[in-house]
Amino acid sequence: MNVRRTMKARRALTAVAITTGLVLTVAGCSGGGDDDKPDSDASAEQSDQDNGGGGGPDAPDDNEVLAEVKGGDDLTLTFNSAKREEGGFVTVTGKLTNNGSGLWLSPGWSGDEEELAAKNKTSMAGAKLTDKSGKKRYYILRDTEGRCLCTSFSKGIQGGDTETWYAQFPAPPKGNNTVDFQIADMPPATIKISDE
To answer: Which regions are flagged for Low complexity bias (predicted)?
Structure first.
């Protein structure tokens, strides 16, 4: 009889521990506190990120161009916004156009860091923001599983196509709003962070 009671108690404790762990995992993953955002928007945003073309948190404002650079592989990288967000980070958004005729697959855009590149092979994980006045360089933010908080071009970009993109970085101190964005062999682009 004692063995049965002990086994039942152990099963109950195991069930409670597993349930508590799952609840804490879900609470930890829910993150951002964007409670008034409709669920359909959140799933559409996730779908955009999975498909590699998403504008991330906010789609870029096509009317405003902060900067534009052209580089190897006939690419044009356009910057539509750079916003300082609550929580101490900056979200940069824009468009990437493949002006060539073939498929572009983001070679070297995931950066040189082995751990980061391994989990973000077709992404913008190698991008950096440089705050010249503060003399600091800021690297792409990552989630708890090591994935960058940036767009992944998992299917590449066909010649003549344009995809939206986003990348999130730690924010420089307020007042240091002019930064250089640099990725792979593209020339650096000087952009201004808005405090909206």
So the answer is: 41-50
